[in-house]
Amino acid sequence: MRLRRCGPDAVLVELESLAEVAAARTALAAANLPGLVDLVPAARTVLASFTPGSPGPRLVPGVLERADLTAPPEVTAGEVVLPVVYGGPDLDLVASTAGLSVEDTIALHAGATYTVAFCGFAPGFAYLTGLPDPLCQPRLDTPRTRVPAGSVGVAGEFTGIYPRSSPGGWRLLARLADDVDPLFDATRNPAALLSPGDRVRFEARP
Amino acid sequence: MTRALTVLATGPLALVQDLGRPGNAHLGVPPSGALDEPSLRLANRLVGNPEDAAGIETVLGGLRVRASAPCTVAVTGPSVSVRLDGLLVDSHSPLFLGAGAELEIGSPWRGLRCYLAVSGGVAVDRQLGSRSTDILSGIGPAPLRVGDVLPLGAVVEVPVGADVVCAVRAPEELVVPLLLGPREDWFADVTARLAGAVWSVSPESNRVGLRLLGEPLRRTSEFDGRELVSEGLVTGAVQVPASGLPVIFLSDHPTTGGYPVVGVVPAAHLAALAQARPGTRVRLRPST
To answer: TM segments (chain A) (predicted)?
Structure first.
């Protein structure tokens, strides 16, 4: 772990793994740091930013020294179940890369329990960890110029759902069922269906 | 009669802005909010609003509105001509508009962004706690268009006025402090190079970031061609993409980025950057 300054009122915590990121984020969130504005996990970092002049940044090292970054954080959030329809344009590619049948690929993806590691790229885009090894696959060589909203894809160690249509290079396996609430709706409270730390499962619909 | 403002002309860009929606970065939602925050706060104080009420942020003026009911308004930011029913009136001062009165903001002589506050505040619906338009994510109301009718909130206080109110200065050269980090070690001879550099504000700049033109920063050989795993960004972060030309992130910045941030401009200095027209010279004064 290493701390890096990010201006007068923020600290960037560098960590070794997604598991450490989750543990550090949980410890900082539980510490009730004064003036905390944002706690932004990413793949290997947690950014803690504070209101100008807050003593918060000076308290971050102590919180992390007392935290056990090797222990998996307690699950406090509920589980979100997302009904999806498998049959995405890259399902065959993912299955052949994994050396599995399409049916086994679907069973593998739908059978795992995922955790929201962090959000980014666009509002409500959640990077889910817990992807079974055979499904950890590279991005497409040529990204699509338009991926429809609700597409479910895999890339590297993550699976995720596009909250709105955008360009993207993830391998697409499925799409959210039509009756699922949008993943992100700024006029709704809460706006985002998925937040860091949440558990997520996919439920295969015909 | 409902209290409302009707938009008669927008100028190049007019947006509803309050103090934004910080605290949602973990969901991928930018903070947004007025770029020249002190100017919006001042305009709100002048008309008796809480400082966080929503007003209108204009770029190079050109906004014309009609009041449906009596209200108090104030225009702040850089020096600018303001007309009330065609007659020149003061900026940086509370103005009373009767029902049907028209207010027009001219083009500021220097600087970019003027702010219009109205008693009661612009009361469009909030999204994630804020009425601000976020041009990166498309959250909040669309940019203003001719014919838009903006509802106004209830008036809670009487206008207070002020003894002396100064317009924002927008000099031709800005010197802003830069606290090095978190990734200053990616760049060669970084303190000396930054201290000696004079940048120029690019016309590609917007609410996402102020783009700088000049001599590109070079990476150390150790970090040449290296990729950074995306990490969280604060407002004021100076990110250096592969081109070596820095971008100073403003209110509508992405919440994470995959290029190294050489340093951060403290929040108190961002308002001056929000008023920097293309071509403005910028010096970053690095410190550790």
So the answer is: none
